[in-house]
Design a protein that fits this description.
The complex is a heterodimer of chains A (306) and B (182).
Chain A lengths: L15 H19 L12 E6 L5 H12 L3 E6 L11 H10 L4 E6 L4 H8 L3 E7 L5 H15 L6 E5 L6 H12 L3 E5 L15 E3 L2 H7 L2 E4 L15 H8 L3 H7 L4 E3 L12 H4 L6 H20 L3
Parallel strand pairs in A: 1-2, 1-3, 3-4, 5-6, 5-8, 6-7, 8-9
Chain B lengths: L1 E7 L1 H18 L6 E6 L2 H17 L5 E4 L30 E9 L3 H13 L4 E9 L11 E5 L6 E6 L1 H4 L3 E6 L5
Parallel strand pairs in B: 2-3, 2-4, 4-5, 5-6
Antiparallel strand pairs in B: 1-8, 7-8
Helix pairs in contact in B: 1-2
Classes of the chains: A alpha/beta (306), B alpha/beta (182).
Amino acid sequence: MPLSSRHLLGLQGVPKEDIQLILDTATTFKEVLERPIKKVPTLQGKTIVNLFYENSTRTRISFELAQKRLSADIVNFSVGLSSVSKGETFKDTMRNIEAMKVDMVVVRHSTAGAPKFLTQISNANIINAGDGIHEHPTQALLDMYSIREKFGTLEGLKVCIVGDIAHSRVALSNIFGLKTMGAEVTVCGPSTMIPRYIEELGVKVIYDIDEAIQENDVLNVLRIQLERKAREYFPSIREYARYFGITRERLEKIGKDITILHPGPINRGVELSSEVADGMNQIILQQVTNGVAVRMAVLYLLGTMN
Amino acid sequence: MNVKSKVIDETAFRRIITRISHEILEQNKGSNDLILIGMRTRGEFLAQRIQNKIKDIEKIEIPLGVLDVTLYRDDFRTRLKQPEVSVTNITFDINEKHIILIDDVLFTGRTVRSALNVLMDFGRPASIQLVVLVDRGHRELPIRADYVGKNIPTSTNEEVRVKMKEIDGEDAVYLVEMEGEK
């Protein structure tokens, strides 16, 4: 059974069956990654362009590896080295790339909705690799895959997303995906970073991190985006770390084994202490491994659609 | 679709497994360095049956792996339906081993071609031999089976349906006729 859409723009409105299919298919690819030759010929002859208008290490390498392991031909585009610096518009850039006959485009852009715009001017399959503060669907899928791998299911699981909920595309995609899969979602952070009306998405809001740890099975701890003026929303990094940072002392005081995810890169000593980041209960590196498998699944399911 | 005939019944099914198990042992002069690889879905169950039979005969358990060839298929562009993938499970080294590849029906030979490619990605086996329950003809590639349960000549509007107790509740092979569209 194929996916219901030929693009992956976000997880809002994506049916449960589609998410289930992607997560199940990812298991197949995880096995491929264990093989001596970690490559299958599935997307042979398909051309994929990675259109990155924003910096990225993890997501780009992860997508690139996923594409190479499916034997696709790939072209990487980074804004700094391109004609964008000569003033070419986003639309013209895309039109030109399209004219070179590409099958799929993976796009990251600082403007929300950029991937959706591409679907209107291109025939390629579009995959959103993060658009502004809107969505980052493959990150949420790999988070869900990692949680499901540990707990066996997402149904009824209590997951709390901690940090800057208002400016996080990871948070939003996670909320949509987890809700669809039947998890109970809570968000936690300083009140300046919790958007008004967030409850309307069916999530609970807690402002006290101790209470959040107490009540949940999983914490998905977001990165405080220091480069994006995050500090305007709280008085100091130290204060944030004191009130919302997850430390060993805090976990010991509450006396609970809680599973911790982080999309990376970690600000050590801010949202997670080093002890916790390297501790037993985090599945942060599994997330990275699973990221390649999940992206292979998405590329496979979209790339082999007729 | 209507069933034309039952071409293999439960007794014949059992005898085929027994005969092929003996043939494998005879051909390979015992069970040294043998590996069974079943192709999903029914090839896996056939492989288990052969494994058990050889255990009865020789008191030796031959390693068994399972292969899913979906990712290696050559018909992604022409198929209307997207194939579902499942997991390949080969947890041992296949280098310098004699592989017995097992599938239910041999038809165009394209699935076997995919399987050979997958196996080559896992290592360099000493040899690969092919077991099929039914050879229905119509090969499109230069591939043949080393052990055949039964040769069943078919026309292109016929299909061979293999049923096995593990998932279908019975051991049998039916010849069915397709009407109109494939």
